[in-house]
Amino acid sequence: MASNLVLVDSCVFIKAFRKDTLAQNHLSDIIDRTAFSVITQLELLVGARSTQNKAAINNIFAAYYGIPLSAEISEKAIYLMRHYVSGNRHLSVPDCLIAATSLITGFPLLTYNKKDFAFIERITFYE
After folding, report:
1. CA dihedral sign, ordered 103, 127, 9, 93
2. What is the DSSP letter of 69?
3. Nearest-angstrom CA–CA distance, 63 and 32
4. 83 closest CA partner among 99, 67, 69
5. Alpha helices (runs of H) in 18-70, residue ranges in sequence order
6. Rounded to two decimals, what is the model's pTM?
7. DSSP-based three-state secondary structure for 35
8. Radius of gyration of the chain (CA)
9. Which of 22, 45, 56, 127 has the fewest C-beta atoms under 10 angstroms from its C-beta?
10. What are phi and psi of 47, to 5 degrees?
11. How far, in Å, CA of 99 to CA of 97, rounded?
12. In this structure, what are the phi and psi dihedrals at residue 31, rounded to the nearest 5 degrees?
């Protein structure tokens, strides 16, 4: 596995898929270093309403490095959920798994929703 990959959050792919120029530029900047969690792929497929959109999503992800869930990522996600979720702080299951993937791989996270992850110790963001 390459050591200089960037883990891309679902929101970036969604914006790029909707022709957002900033998101498309960010993905272009890291074209050979783009990684995604399988959870990100699932999130986009859930939102796809047509067979054509699902095919387009599959084509997009075929060009990047997919990171499957592993026992280590799962254990880290469980730790994050236990450690960070409280009555006043919410961490969704997909975000928890994406954060765990970033932490386990050491890849910085490219996201437009930093507030969803900023409270997690040792998470790093791609700028």
Report:
1. positive
2. -
3. 9
4. 99
5. 21-29, 38-47, 51-62
6. 0.91
7. strand
8. 14
9. 127
10. -80, -10
11. 5
12. -50, -40
Q: Which domains does the chain have, with CATH numbers?
A: 6-116 (3.40.50.1010)
Question: Phi and psi for 20 in degrees, rounded to 5?
Answer: -70, 120
Which residues does 107 contact at the CB level (< 8 Å), separation at least 6?
5, 6, 7, 35, 101
Count of positions (residues) in the chain? 127
| Interatomic CA distance for residues 120 and 113, integer angstroms | 13
Two tokens, residue 109 = 């996270």
Each residue's pLDDT, cut to its tens digit, for the chain (127 residues) gives 566 899 999 999 999 989 999 999 999 999 899 999 999 999 999 988 889 989 988 888 998 999 999 999 999 999 999 998 877 778 899 999 999 999 999 999 999 999 999 999 999 999 8
* Cβ–Cβ under 8 Å, residues 26 and 55: no
Structure tokens at 43: 């999130």
Helix (H, G, I), strand (E, B) or coil at 66: strand
Q: Which residues pair with 35 in a beta bridge?
A: 7, 65
